Structures are given as structure tokens and as C-alpha cells.
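Quick one, T. Sequence first:
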Amino acid sequence: MDEQAVDLIGLVKTVVEPLIEYKDDLDISSSETEDGSILIEISVNEEDAGKVIGRQGRVIKAIRTLARAAASRTDTHVEVELLD
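C-alpha cells:
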């Protein structure tokens, strides 16, 4: 895992952790897709999923925007997904 992926995971963790109640169930992983972009997958407790999504998806959209802005410094494309 390259340094930028680690930085992006740290950023996402910093944003998501205060939102959730079951911090032990938080799992954030990253992988590189075929087209060279970074895929960050967030897994939380079922009861915390709504908090991470937010009303009308606003929170997860904000998380995606932050991750994309951080990755844009090195012209890297990043996708953030919340796993069921």
C-alpha cells in the first residue's frame, strides 16, 4: 500500500470515527483498481451506517469530496464506498 493510500485512509478514519458509536466495528481498507485509482471501502456497524450516510447522503458525499480533494494534489482519482 502506497503512502498516499495510507494518508487517505487516515483522513477518512479521522472524519468517520467521531460519527459512529461502535468504533471497534470500524474497518477502512483500500485497494488499487484496474484503472489506477484508489478505492477506499468503509465498513461500520449496521446501526452506524445511517450516521455515516447522513440525511440525503450528505455526510458520505462530504467524505468523498474531502478524499478527492486530498488525492487531487497528486492527480490521483479516489472512490469512497460504504459497504453494507
